[in-house]
Design goal:
This protein is of the alpha/beta class. It is built from 17 helices and 29 strands. It comes from Robertmurraya beringensis.
Length: 580
């Protein structure tokens, strides 16, 4: 659990009252503040008193005591609440701390985070200690509780045991169950998942769906089971169907689904002009996609697409807070709320020039104040990847009769292998590569062929995957081995080898799945990876998600997993992994 169950202890609340009584000075006073008041749906002007991390008063009065107060004249600025990302995947090469820091510079001061990596990579108590550390950052950090691994893993019944899931659900920082990537199991009669959903509802916590392509009847069934929201609508009609069944709808704009402009056009064509049941999400985009901002960018797009300005801001603030039952803390500028405030120069430009997060300046007059302290990652359980086993050329045996064909960046289908793979190097005249998934503990492997990834990549090694196991791809077995060895030296990472030379690397020393670099630097590294792979025949736009989703069984049609090659539609292992 967190160190304190209540957001503010009794003594803190007494201090807040003393500020109103004039016995204690506010820490910050915002005067002449034109701010968005969502109760009246209007821009209003007031004085805003802040003490430490809380808004103490909003109105016409001026404090009697300003002895220890920073007074800021907000004339010429517009103030809006800090933005909320309701569906963050904070482990997409970046880490939760670096993402929080980066997001704050664009006004997103609250993140509601996926716990998948914590559940899969860490012992529960260590994960909770990490969450406690994140709680102390300027960003308000909340978490999900996953009910399944999103892939076929070994010992799933231990990782997602009833006691583990119940402990996660009961955690004060966890405010939703899901996302429900394993919902077909629920339809097939998985009563344990249904029980966990029941527990989430009993605790007044939300349940997030994951229902791409779901029919109207399936949506109705999932609502009856207890789902509250879904972020997978890809057309205006799918949004309409979700609204009709009572869902909150997250409008997505991510690196693999940059859908927001089309979604807004199509809901307007359908005559939908109410926005209270909408919120925004970037759904854990790859670093390069965040170059132009996060929730602020989605608000900007919405305004350009004709959404009324106040509604556009509400979709990134108060709508989210109301949905998650945290309106008393977040989503608006009002007495008693956490002091998360963005300072804008224009209502049509939602990227702030200054940002307060928990009453701290994290951005001031366009400059990062470096309010996010460096972390000791090793102490928190995120050590560099250490392999106590050796890869040998005997592991590079490829005789499977069919392989995996990429339809796009993340969808893969089976195909019949017709080339002779009994060579150390494949021709660059086709787009088939050697493809391996190897247990990070060295106990098993699965070897097949991958079509459609590249026709020229000689050797790529990645410890970045759904489960943290090792992916090897390439035309040349020796280059794949060379990339693997460099990845081990780095303590994890994404590495490409050509002509026995390392030509590109992204170190991931945090358990082999995350970087300790800033998101700004990762934006450039991600763009470099994409640009390089495109010169080698990669035809898509998101290699980070390609690597991540090779094992993800919430997507069709065929996946490589810890259990073996898996047929998603028929829910069966086609070829088991080979023990080493």
């Amino acid at each position: 659990m967190l160190d304190q169950r209540y957001r503010w202890k009794n003594k803190h609340i007494r201090e807040h009252i003393s500020v109103l009584d004039g016995n204690v000075s506010p820490t910050i006073l915002l005067t002449n503040a034109k701010y968005l008041n969502q109760t009246f749906r209007a821009w209003m002007t007031a004085n805003i008193w802040i003490y430490d991390d809380r808004i103490i008063y909003v109105g016409d009065q001026y404090p009697d005591n300003v002895d220890n107060c920073e007074i800021v004249d907000c004339s010429g600025l517009l103030l809006v609440p800090g933005y909320i990302e309701p569906h963050a995947h904070p482990f997409q090469v970046y880490n939760p701390h670096s993402l929080a820091h980066y997001a704050s510079q664009y006004g997103t001061t609250t993140l509601i985070n996926d716990n998948m990596v914590l559940a899969l990579q860490m012992e529960k108590n260590k994960a909770f200690s990490f969450m406690r550390e994140m709680h102390n950052s300027p960003t308000s950090m909340y978490w999900w509780c996953r009910f399944d691994a999103q892939t076929e893993i070994r010992d799933e019944e231990q990782i997602f045991s009833h006691s583990n899931v119940k402990s996660w659900l009961e955690h004060d920082a966890v405010i939703q169950g899901g996302e429900l990537t394993g919902w077909p199991k629920l339809l097939d009669g998985d009563d344990m998942m249904l029980h966990w959903m029941q527990e989430a509802k009993r605790m007044r916590k939300k349940v997030e769906g994951h229902f791409p392509g779901a029919s109207e009847k399936t949506l109705a069934k999932m609502m009856l089971f207890g789902a509250d929201c879904d972020h997978e609508a890809m057309t205006g009609e799918e949004i309409y169907n979700r609204l009709m069944q009572g869902y909150m709808v997250s409008l997505r704009h991510s690196s693999i689904r940059p859908d927001l402009p089309v979604l807004l056009d199509e809901i307007h064509q359908l005559g939908i002009t109410m926005y209270d049941k909408f919120m925004f999400t970037t759904d854990g985009a790859s670093p390069h996609f965040y170059e132009n901002g996060i929730i602020d960018n989605m608000i900007r797009i919405a305004i350009k697409k004709g959404v009324p300005v106040i509604d556009a801001y509400n979709m990134g603030t108060i709508n989210v807070a109301r949905y998650y039952n945290v309106e008393h803390l977040h989503g608006n500028i009002a007495t008693g709320r956490v002091a998360n405030i963005n300072f804008l120069t224009d209502e049509r430009n939602p990227t702030p020039v200054s940002v307060l997060a928990k009453g701290q300046w994290v951005k001031r007059d366009g400059k990062d104040t470096n309010a996010y302290e460096q972390l000791n990652w090793v102490d928190m359980g995120f050590e560099p990847l250490k392999l106590d086993w050796e890869l040998s050329m005997d592991d590079f045996q490829f005789s499977m009769p069919f392989g995996i064909k990429m339809e796009n960046a993340v969808i893969t289908k089976p195909y019949s292998v017709s080339i002779d793979a009994n060579y150390d190097e494949l021709s660059c005249d086709h787009d088939e590569c050697f493809f391996m998934l190897i247990d990070k503990h060295g106990k098993w492997r699965i070897n097949t062929m991958l079509k459609g990834f590249s026709n020229k990549v000689q050797g790529l090694a990645s410890s970045y995957s759904t489960t943290g196991d090792i992916i090897l791809i390439g035309k040349n077995k020796y280059e794949m081995m060379n990339a693997f060895h460099r990845m081990v030296e780095l303590g994890g990472g994404i590495v490409i080898s050509e002509e026995r030379r390392i030509v590109l690397e992204i170190p991931l020393p945090l358990s082999g799945v995350m970087s300790d670099h800033s998101v700004e630097r990762l934006v450039e590294e991600d763009k470099e990876l994409l640009a390089y792979l495109k010169t080698k025949g990669y035809a898509y736009g998101d290699p980070i998600y390609t690597l991540l989703f090779f094992s993800s069984t919430h997507l069709p049609y065929i996946r490589i997993t810890q259990q073996g090659m898996y047929d998603v539609m028929n829910k069966m292992i086609l070829f088991p992994t080979i023990m080493r």
